[in-house]
Amino acid sequence: MADRPETLEPEAEWRTAGDRIQTLLDACAAGGPAAHERAQQLVREVVGLYGAGLQRIMDQTNPALAERLATDDLVASLLLVHGLHPHDVRRRVADALDRVRPYLGSHGGDVELLEIADGTVRLRFQGSCKSCPSSAVTLELAVEDAIRAAAPEVSSIEVVAAEPTDVIPAQSLLAHLHSNGATAWHPAPELADLAPGEVAGFLIADATVLACRVDGQLLAYRDRCPVCVDSLAGAQLRGRLLQCPRCGTDFDVAHAGAAANGHLEPLPLLDRDGVLSVALTRDMVRASA
């Protein structure tokens, strides 16, 4: 297994700053309620201070410069925190979809923004990505990730289903991911080293991930056979079929790991800030800890 980079790229590092701050606050809680409250108050004072500074900057900024600031992800995220972003929610959602469209296009798909009402964004996916559930899950989570970063006030995202053509409906796979707890992205650059037709297991955030490369596409699955409920360690790949080494069941990895009596659990893969990442549900990480 390839060594994971010790440091994140600058753009990726600031995206995790919120998680690091929350971890530090949680650690302060060990010192008792008083220490925890002081730490929280310190954060509020610092946030309020730079918020006041941003307010003054935006009040004295001309429209052209405001537009430039709004296109910088880091600055835009700070403006959103303080309600200073110059664009309304529809513009921000539309811009987020435009930024992710090249990735959707690489999978032969696209997305249409239908409406935004009462905090809910309604979308419809288009193109060939609808025919592959594994791809659809990854693409929908990529879109959801982009929208929530651009418009944190959005309470829910709904995808209007097209005519069912999937071997396994993509919506059922997404529902399975969401029902298992919050989905978090974890760096997994070592998966990119897989050769065509190769299958291997990787330990990502203490969870075992099975990955393979088929027909030029990199795919990842949870390391669990749904038929014998055992590990897939030692599984063999024959074309698009992955055979469980214990019960002998063949799964079509190109169609969400479908089999006659069940299907594997696809894990979304996405290039985030230049780092290949995999989405793991909370229950996967907890079960492996």
UniProtKB/TrEMBL annotation:
Domain (Rieske) ranges: 185-278
InterPro entries according to UniProt: FSCA_dom_sf, NIF_FeS_clus_asmbl_NifU_C, Rieske_2Fe-2S, Rieske_2Fe-2S_sf
Keywords: 2Fe-2S, Iron, Iron-sulfur, Metal-binding
GO biological process: iron-sulfur cluster assembly
Single annotated GO MF: iron ion binding
PANTHER family named in the record: IRON-SULFUR CLUSTER SCAFFOLD PROTEIN NFU-RELATED
Function, in words: May be involved in the formation or repair of [Fe-S] clusters present in iron-sulfur proteins.
Protein name stated in the entry: Rieske domain-containing protein
